[in-house]
Amino acid sequence: MTASRQDAGAEEVTLTATAWQQLQGLATLGRVAGGVLHELNNLLTVIGGYSELLLQRGSAPRRAELEAVLRAAQQAAALARQLLACGRGQPRQAVNLNRLIADFSRLLQALLGEAISLETCLAPDLGEVCGDPAALAQVLLNLVRNACDAMPEGGRLAIHTANADFAEVATEAPQRGPAVKLAVADTGCGMDAAVQAQLFTPFFSTKAHGTGLGLTLVAQIVRQHRGLLAVRSAPGQGTTVTVYLPRAAPDAASSPAPQAAPLPRGAGRILLVEDDAEVRQLVRAVLQRQGYTVLAAGSASEALRLAQEQPVDVLLADVVLPQLSGPTLAACLRARHPDLKVLLISGYPPGVLAQRYGAAVAEAVLAKPFTPEALLRQVHALLGAG
Ligand SMILES: Nc1ncnc2c1ncn2[C@@H]1O[C@H](COP(=O)(O)OP(=O)(O)O)[C@@H](O)[C@H]1O
Ligand SMILES: [Mg+2]
Fold first, then answer.
1. Domains and CATH numbers, the chain
2. N or C end of the chain: smaller count of CB under 10 Å?
3. Is the CB of 186 under 6 A from ligand 1?
4. β-pairing, 239-246 with 228-233?
């Protein structure tokens, strides 16, 4: 049905040059992503954290909208992880693409606006795929966003799911066997061959304000799920992008994660050291609501002073601080208070942290961006253990 990436028919020389360009693009992407990730994680922690706090108040007005904000923040956090992980596997679970589409229907409607009508045709017996739901949602959202961009005057967007087989895509495809397909079709401007050849090149965009990263990410996520992508398009004829993912065997479908027990109220004194004022305020609010006493400091020197004035049970410190790093501060305070528990907040993957500062520096590490729930669980586990 389609012209897949495999049979784009490029000569070997062209292919090699394109592959080289893509590699260079990806290296740049990695550097850019690494550089902004710290800031991005702080912002996402704040956006997600306050949305959750408001939702927990029970009577939050505009609940649905707030839930959409929270979901978007979680998506963005997953995206940031994806950019950094680049190839490292994410935890996999059984995902039903129909449910994913339903979960995002509100956000999709908002993307579409009024001039674009949405048609969905979802197979009721759709098989599940084994994957990372946040990453798969990124695929859906990026394809829908591109479809909308292609229809500035309005049009029709069709989202279609069905059970399929990899044999449909290309006979020489490395993947075989049952698949699930997700097709996103638009009645927009379509693409000529030149644009189609560049589609997956990082930073390739024909839009005034495009990033050119949407389809790069889509292709990366699909590849990580051992799937295939097919694009059918012609100028003025609209575009259909179809994603094929391996169908999970029915008994591989896991039951949803069990609900964790609610946390008891906390007690204890926590010395919080975080230079980002927004994150500091959020963490303080979350801990205080749960019953903890919080001494908050914006720098290591302020923290040292506070620790001299009163006893603390837990040091909760960002790894990257202006004068003295979190791990160095922890070592200083531990020399005087050997019973002090240390929880570090870090944007680095745990392996990098242990390599740089040694494994013994902290009892636990909280990865950014984190949810209020994850923060409270870590703090509770530390104090409970002691
Ligand atoms: N549904 C579509 N219809 C027409 N053109 C598309 C469509 N999807 C992608 N494209 C083309 O591919 C380019 C790259 O897309 P993408 O990687 O998502 O980056 P961006 O959307 O930021 O431009 C777009 O700029 C556009 O030219
Ligand atoms: Mg895009």
1. 9-88 (1.10.287), 90-249 (3.30.565.10), 269-385 (3.40.50.2300)
2. N
3. yes
4. antiparallel
Q: What is the pLDDT along the chain (386 residues), one digit of tens a residue?
A: 333 333 333 222 333 445 445 545 555 555 555 556 667 777 888 898 888 888 887 777 788 888 888 888 888 887 776 666 544 445 578 899 999 999 888 888 888 888 999 999 999 999 999 988 888 988 998 999 999 999 999 999 999 999 999 888 765 666 788 999 999 999 999 999 999 999 988 889 999 888 888 898 898 888 888 899 999 999 999 999 999 999 998 754 444 445 567 778 889 999 999 998 888 999 999 999 999 999 999 999 999 999 999 999 999 999 888 888 899 999 999 989 989 999 998 876 656 666 676 666 788 888 887 888 889 999 998 987 44
- Return the ligand 1 atom nearest residue 188 CA: 3
* Rama region for 365: left / alpha / beta (φ>0; ψ in -120 to 50; rest): beta
Please state the atom number of ligand 1 nearest to the C-alpha of residue 147: 1
Q: Which residues pair with 365 in a beta bridge?
A: 344
Among the bound ligands, the one closest to the CA of 205: 1
The CA 127 to ligand 2 mean position distance, Å, reads: 27
Q: How far is the CA of 233 from the centre of ligand 2 (A)?
A: 16
Q: Is the CB of 148 under 6 A from ligand 1?
A: no
**Which residues keep their CB under 5 angstroms from ion ligand 2?**
146, 214
User: For residue 141, which ligand has an atom nearest its CA?
Assistant: 2
Q: DSSP labels for 237-265?
A: S-EEEEEEEEBPPGGGPPPPPPPPPPPPP
Q: Which helix (H) or strand (E) holds 116?
A: strand 116-122
pTM, entire model: 0.53
Residue owning the nearest CA to atom 11 of ligand 1: 199
Cβ(361)–Cβ(330) under 8 Å?
yes
User: Are the CB atoms for 38 and 32 separated by under 8 Å?
Assistant: no
For residue 31, how far is its CA from the centre of ligand 2 (angstroms)?
20
Query: Nearest ligand, CA of residue 217?
Result: 1
- Ligand 1 atom closest to the Cα of residue 206 is 25
